[in-house]
Amino acid sequence: MKKSPVLLALIVALAATSAPLRAETWTVGMSGGYFPFTFVRSDELQGFEVDFIEAIAAETGDTPEFVTMAFSGLVGALESGRIDTIANQITITPEREAAFVFSQPYVFDGAQVVVKEGNEDTITGVEDLSGKTVAVNLGSNFEELLEGLPNAAEIDIRTYDSNIAQDTALGRVDAFVMDRVSSAQLIQESPLPLALAGAPFSEIRNALPFRDDEEGRALRDRVDAAITTLRDDGTLAEISQKWFGTDITVPE
């Protein structure tokens, strides 16, 4: 029986939509020094972000290739095309949204002041940072958050490539600011005498950034669909429970 042109066109369309997507290899930049999100232990790159990306790749059928570098160089590497995305707790900000397209948020957190143990009674929040030296990681959004505070002009903000926790514990700076989840994990795992100072002072939504071009948007859409599936089937919550004992992938 001869098929009509309309029927043939329908068969072709259905075949195209049901065909599996071609597997891809995409490069994921991370610092490898941001416990417990991305870190190296026994020469193995691991952490929440590693498990998260590998779960996405298992869903899409792709192969992730991890590239580690200084956190301050990650955005430049994405802009220049040396990597395809960044999995290192990248916070969505208006400036970044103007430069990149983002996946849906997959971590909800807050900015946290951390001090040397014993000083949490005198520094109980950002209002007590006037006249103090405060460290932040170079290239992070925490410098911007501090600069937006009413008392920003009275805070000596210092940017670091590394060792902000050590310098705080040694008294070289009065405090550092990082996300609350990482701060709490660091205090729990590290022998350094550190303490949380008050409650988080700003909500943080972290997501994966991609270049704002045709290829970047296509990869973002592919990854975003996988994140939705992983959220719905409970995989995101399981990964979070593994690393944090709680679900940080949903708003509080």
Automatic annotation (TrEMBL):
Gene Ontology MF annotations: ligand-gated monoatomic ion channel activity
Pfam families the UniProt entry points to: SBP_bac_3
Ionotropic glutamate receptor C-terminal domain mapped to chain residues: 25-246
Gene3D superfamilies: Periplasmic binding protein-like II
Keyword Signal assigned: yes
Gene Ontology CC annotation, any one: membrane
Signal peptide interval: 1-23
Ranges where the Solute-binding protein family 3/N-terminal domain occurs: 25-247
Record's keyword terms, sorted: Signal
InterPro entries per UniProt: Iontro_rcpt_C, Solute-binding_3/MltF_N
Alphabetized PANTHER family for the sequence: AMINO-ACID-BINDING PROTEIN YXEM-RELATED, MEMBRANE-BOUND LYTIC MUREIN TRANSGLYCOSYLASE F
Protein name (Swiss-Prot/TrEMBL): Putative amino-acid-binding protein YxeM
